[in-house]
Amino acid sequence: MQQPQQPVLRDIVLVGGGHSHVGVLRRFAMRPEPGVRLTLICRDSHTPYSGMLPGYIAGHYAYDEVHIDLRRLAEYAGARFLRDEAIGIDHEGQRVLCRARPPVPYDQLSINIGSTPRVDTVTGAGEHAVPVKPIHRFDDRWQTLLERVIHHPGTTRIAVVGGGAGGVELLLAMQHRLRGELADRGRDPDELAFALFTRGEAFLPTHNARVRANFRDHLRARGVAVHTGTDITAVDAGRLQDADGSWHEADEIVWVTNAGGAGWLRDTRLELDDDGFIKVGDTLQSLSDPRIFAAGDIAHQVNHPREKAGVFAVRQGRPLADNLRAAVTGRPLKPYRPQARWLALIGTGDRHAVASRGELCLAGDWVWRWKNWIDRRFMARFNDLPPMAEDTGRARAPSRVALDEEENAQAISAIAMRCGGCGAKVGATTLSRALSTLQPVAREDVLVGLHAPDDAAVVRVPPGKAMVHTVDFFRAFIDDPYVFGKVAANHALGDIFAMGAEAQTATAVATVPQGLEVKVEDTVFQMMAGAVEVLNAAGCALVGGHTGEGQELALGFAVNGLIDAEGDAALSDSILTKGGLRPGQALILTKPIGTGTLFAAHARLGAKGRWIDAALESMCLSNREAATCLREHGATACTDLTGFGLLGHLVEMTRPSGVDAELDLAALPILGGAEETVAAGILSSLQPANVRLRRALRDQASWVGHPRYPLLFDPQTAGGLLAGVPAERVEACLAALHAQGYPQAAIIGRVLDAGEALEPIVLRE
């Protein structure tokens, strides 16, 4: 018999995807702690490595070379990745408050979010300057600035405020890149004028005189105007003002100074320094809350204050991981003392660099090559992940987590042989607590609903309406229960909308892995909170359900919908069936395809985080407005794309309609990355069954080698609607879909008269 999985006993939550936290994830990936679940909360799936960011700005590296794929790394570490942003801490409830999802409980919490620009301390800086921190958001701003400079006619004056290593290195990288961009376009690179502003009497104040002299020569040779002893007190459109009241002209202003802690930390009980950074002791624990750790720029190690530099965040990864592990297992924590001196390798933008450490100063192209070798080796640790053994021992290794008596009893029960039948239900108390705060939409036709203590819901079917009924159920394919709940609800509602009905009520069926009651309760709450959010937006009331224990998280819904049925004619006109296609119609698909291959790749660490982000965004997009739009533009047949894939669902439409269809492979909307994962041979486990429908393709053999051919069989989850729309109304329909939030909706083919051939589907491109 297969051994049961280790239940979740403790939660370590990591807020932010900084250099320390990527180190924590990797160390837990190499040596998991049984019973301990890691959760990473981060707004972005890709985090930049600060050491290579100037090289990226200078044009020496591509995006993926300087970014760590956090979603992929989390998957590798067996951690949950929650794409959101922390905005507060509930200390009593031990929960992280998030911007766009329910709070996330923790047993131990670690914060590694870097610093935040304090542009609000200088009048106009927030409106007219481009802050470089937090660096994970800088790329969008840099791309915008790059476009503005390239398309700005004549002279462009660029000011960088901040004379530390970050400001100097960034200025030189920007100058190198922008001069090259202008030269490539046949423009004079000398149209660019750069200036550096720093309040100190010298730039690079933490480095030795030889390093400063070296960079002084570089800046002079590159024509950069250096303004030392200049405290910028105001920023206006196209200019900066210093403390003596004089103004300096600048078309673009980049802010590399005055960074502090995130504003939301001030509303917590954490003890902060004057700049808003979290005060921590030698074990990296907050001075005011020992359950909370901090590392990187956001942390101020009170006994060992150091400059804000990436080297410290990198070095803190190991002691932070070790102390988090010790905290959940009840072992003593170890102090960490950062080095007093460190090596800084500062680039000049042109594949040249300067090495600085204490009184050391070395410079040359070879230093840049040395820096490049160090940086690439660091990045390889997180992007070139070694294969993990099939059996890592996670299931059978005994847990070292420190538990109280009640928790220990629950843990023993969770890994013991479980009952079947009604004995496999989630406990009533646990379930009632999890569902107590959910607020299903109120409907007058729901007579007995979710919060009534009865055996079943009672729902009235209004006069003149007929009921549309469907059911869907599947196991989780993503480790975020809240997002999974949203996708599962959207998927189940798709059939209702495709039929032209409005959703009325839903009954849930869920399976949740066993564990400590508090962990089961939160999983149910997170999942159902996401589902209810989607159901409520659709006007669909959750009226009840069943939750049981199982090895994997799973969720499904039986959904009732209502459709006009005053008479047989009205009912016939109201229902959109698969059999309503008419020759001459255009085929519209409202969402891109590719979810099957992408999530198969995600499970194998073969998908980029941004591909999964985009796929989830598409899957969380409701089909409700799309269905209304299609009906308003004369659609006569419709279905939602799910497990049978595009070809399977189109065949289901052509057969009862008595028509053939033509698909334009070039016009198919495809999710980013799906063509790459298909080309790599990564396919959904359902793909082979779907491929059997290839016999429906005319001249099928000639299309097998087409790169998009496998995507015809790719099973979809919460896919778009496929509909037949009159040709004369299709352009207006497409424009309306785009305006209503379906940007990738496309005309993918047309409906043909039935021909003599047995195969109903013709391909073209």
UniProtKB/TrEMBL annotation:
It holds the Pfam family AIRS. Keywords: ATP-binding, Kinase, Nucleotide-binding, Selenium, Transferase. SUPFAM superfamilies: FAD/NAD(P)-binding domain, PurM C-terminal domain-like, PurM N-terminal domain-like. Its EC number is 2.7.9.3. GO terms for molecular function: ATP binding; oxidoreductase activity; selenide, water dikinase activity. Residues 454-562 form the PurM-like N-terminal domain. Residues 582-755 form the PurM-like C-terminal domain. GO terms for cellular component: cytoplasm. One of its GO terms (biological process) is selenocysteine biosynthetic process. Residues 11-304 form the FAD/NAD(P)-binding domain. InterPro entries: FAD/NAD-bd_sf, FAD/NAD-binding_dom, PurM-like_C_dom, PurM-like_C_sf, PurM-like_N, PurM-like_N_sf, Pyridine_nucleo_diS_OxRdtase_N, SPS/SelD. PANTHER family: INACTIVE SELENIDE, WATER DIKINASE-LIKE PROTEIN-RELATED (PTHR10256:SF0), SELENIDE, WATER DIKINASE (PTHR10256). This is Selenide,water dikinase. The lineage of its organism: Bacteria, Pseudomonadati, Pseudomonadota, Gammaproteobacteria, Oceanospirillales.
